[in-house]
Specification:
The structure is a single chain. It contains 4 helices and 7 strands, in the order E-E-E-H-E-H-E-E-H-E-H. It folds into 2 domains: about 30 residues, no CATH class; about 100 residues, Oxidized Rhodanese, domain 1. It is globular. The protein is an alpha/beta fold. Strand 1 and strand 2 form a beta hairpin. The chain has a 5-stranded parallel sheet. It has a two-stranded antiparallel sheet with strand order 1-2.
Amino acid sequence: MADHDLRPVATVNGELGVAFRGLPRIFRGFTMETPLEVDVVTAAQLVREGALLLDVREPDEVATVHVAGSQHIPMRQVPEHLADLPRNRHVVVMCHHGRRSMMVTQYLRGQGYTQVTNIAGGIDAWAEQIDPNLARY
């Protein structure tokens, strides 16, 4: 089997998942039900359906613009706020453009949060495609 080969595995709850050989442990065994990343249109739909919108930008960025109803935890403070994040609810993570939120998404998945998804394009894409009344910076 090559380092990039995939093989099916059964997860704890009996769902079929995929194990990746040669990739970091945090990516192994996840089902495809919760995508690693979605576009802002899909993210907005997930939020309307009850997902938590987690904003990991810095306080000065949130003061400039934020999405109503989002929960703000700066990226560097996420490890000390794990208890504040639900394990039984989908969490979609946002930053300015999607890079920091992807790191947080991967970190949370590594901590056992299986229903966490990054928002590609971040709040900049959200302001462009979902709510044009939001300020852009």
